[in-house]
């Protein structure tokens, strides 16, 4: 019996059916528990009291959120900086921010590594040293090493030409796009030209 009730409630999610209506404002709901919670907004009933401060709430989820104030429990940690929040909404709002700010120019970053890389612009620090050329860089040596090794792992699927960086391949592909555009234009002009002859013949 309980399973059938649960199945009926679940099906209403897919069907969009809302068979439970509020007698006061006629708003409809997919299940009776949502209707019960809604009716309390009209009646002002708050059957869930806090046993610490006696403040009351209309539903148990609101009471649970409230209790975090007393327990100082923060079950929603940020996976980037580790800061925790009592509610998921607080974590969501926090993630939209960029907590790592440059104290020299004010630019902000979502991750600490982004700020660390950025600060090298100001300090001129170049912690990556090439053992081939002896040069130093503020960023990873991967791109620089390709100059010495000659590795070209990015291949054009149109003409087969290879490149050491993805940005060069993207730039190269525009050549093919431009050629195609020119061909289309030329074909269109040829079509217009042929129409002149056709009209003359008619």
TrEMBL record:
The keyword Nucleus applies. GO terms for cellular component: nucleus. Residues 20-47, 48-75, 76-96, 100-127, 154-177 form the C2H2-type domain. It holds the Pfam family zf-C2H2. InterPro entries: Znf_C2H2_sf (IPR036236), Znf_C2H2_type (IPR013087). The keyword tRNA-binding does not apply. Keywords: DNA-binding, Isopeptide bond, Metal-binding, Nucleus, Repeat, Ubl conjugation, Zinc, Zinc-finger. It is found in: Nucleus. GO terms for molecular function: DNA-binding transcription factor activity, RNA polymerase II-specific; RNA polymerase II transcription regulatory region sequence-specific DNA binding; zinc ion binding. PANTHER family: ZINC FINGER PROTEIN (PTHR24381), ZINC FINGER PROTEIN 37 HOMOLOG (PTHR24381:SF390). This is Zinc finger protein 681-like. It comes from Octopus sinensis. The gene is LOC115225629.
């Amino acid at each position: 019996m309980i399973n059938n009730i649960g199945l009926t409630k679940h099906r209403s999610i897919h069907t969009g059916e809302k068979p439970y209506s509020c007698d006061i404002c006629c708003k409809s709901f997919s299940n009776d528990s949502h209707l019960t919670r809604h009716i309390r907004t009209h009646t002002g009933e708050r059957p869930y009291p806090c046993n610490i401060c006696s403040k009351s709430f209309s539903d148990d989820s609101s009471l649970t959120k409230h209790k975090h104030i007393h327990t100082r429990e923060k079950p929603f940690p940020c996976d980037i900086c580790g800061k925790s929040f009592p509610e998921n909404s607080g974590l969501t709002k926090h993630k939209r921010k960029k907590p790592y700010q440059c104290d020299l120019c004010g630019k902000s970053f979502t991750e600490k590594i982004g700020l660390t890389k950025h600060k090298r612009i100001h300090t001129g620090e170049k912690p990556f040293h090439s053992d081939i050329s002896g040069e130093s860089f503020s960023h990873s040596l991967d791109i620089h090493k390709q100059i010495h090794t000659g590795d070209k792992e990015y291949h054009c699927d149109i003409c087969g030409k290879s490149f050491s960086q993805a940005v060069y391949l993207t730039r190269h592909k525009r050549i093919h796009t431009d050629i195609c555009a020119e061909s289309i234009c030329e074909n269109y002009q040829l079509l217009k030209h042929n129409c002149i002859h056709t009209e003359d013949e008619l």
